[in-house]
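Model it.
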Amino acid sequence: MTKPACECEHELGVDRRVATAALLGAGLAGAALKPSGAFAEATTSPVQRQDDAFMRIALAEAAQGDFPFGAVIVRAGKELSRGRNLGRTTNDPTAHGEMVAIRRFVAERPAAELEGATLYTTGEPCPMCMSAILWCRIGRVVYGASIEELAMRLGQIMLTSRVVADAAPFAEISITGGVLSAQALELFPRP
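Modeled.
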């Protein structure tokens, strides 16, 4: 028996669940078939001398957030913008620390000036934040706690920043993880 495909009651010979599973399978297969040379890849960079100091600023922001996530954007050793999670305060689920820092910057200066900057964040950027970071052409991300570590404290979308960055054919970015990770995790309640 066929099932209606839409409200107008047209009938198709395909079960919606079967079609959805086939589309998802095709999408995942397509993602696995990454054309060689078509994508810029994220690189891993070592911890730098100034990383602890800027991460401490991000930690201070996180301590004041609705959820303990904070960020600071830096270029040539100079702080450009800060942000903390304001999701509850603003009733905006996209108001993550990284997004708030980016929005504060672009409210006063051209987004193009973010190109090549470094963004410090207490938690590894979620896919939304990492995508925004890539679109802004930020050149380096330094994070404290990883997605995997954060998932032990609260819900996370289990896509690492590297996976998101590796899927961006237009951007090159350097990623450094684990800077003051223990201090970042201390801000979260234990399960």
